[in-house]
Specification:
The chain has a domain at 4-8 and 12-16 and 21-49 and 79-124: DsrEFH-like (Hypothetical Protein Ychn, Chain: A), CATH 3.40.1260. Helices cover 26% and strands 23% of the residues. It contains four helices and seven strands; from the N terminus they run βαβββαβαβαβ. The chain has helices at 21-31, 70-78, 87-92, 111-116, and strands spanning 2-7, 35-40, 57-59, 62-64, 83-86, 104-106, 120-123. The chain has a five-stranded parallel β-sheet with strand order 6-5-2-1-7. A two-stranded antiparallel sheet has the order 3-4. The radius of gyration is 15 Å and the shape is globular.
């Protein structure tokens, strides 16, 4: 069975965890041999933008120095599974697609055909 993980909410639980939970789950499933594809849409399209490390977050006297590198985790995931990104969601956010990006741009109109290629579609 093949599954398409649709990630539409960017940076979910990254304050509590050191990664996006669904990106982590997708890595785990791919490492276990799952036939998996990942679609980034909504605010999750920001994951294709490489970023510099943000400054530490301070809460009272406590500093969180190790911030999650979600774009790096997504780039590593794209080495394992097909990664799709909704072009309209990039344009809405003013993000230019990288010519060397390890992902495939899809339009909103292409989504039904893309989803029909998978036995299950999981939306997160």
């Amino acid at each position: 069975m093949n599954v398409l993980n649709v990630i539409s909410s960017g940076y979910r639980a990254t304050f509590e965890e050191q990664d996006d939970t669904i990106v982590w789950l997708s890595h785990a499933l791919a490492n276990a041999g799952a036939d998996l594809g990942v679609l980034l849409r909504g605010s999750a399209v920001n994951y294709i933008v490489p970023v510099e490390a943000p400054p530490p977050l301070a809460v009272g006297d406590r500093q969180q120095r190790s911030s999650p590198d979600v774009p790096g985790q997504v780039a590593a995931l794209a080495e394992k599974v097909p990664l799709f990104v909704v072009a309209e969601d990039l344009a809405l956010r003013g993000i230019e697609p990288a010519p060397s990006g390890n992902y495939q741009l899809v339009s909103e109109a292409d989504l039904p055909a893309l989803m029909m290629g998978y036995a299950q579609v999981w939306r997160w």
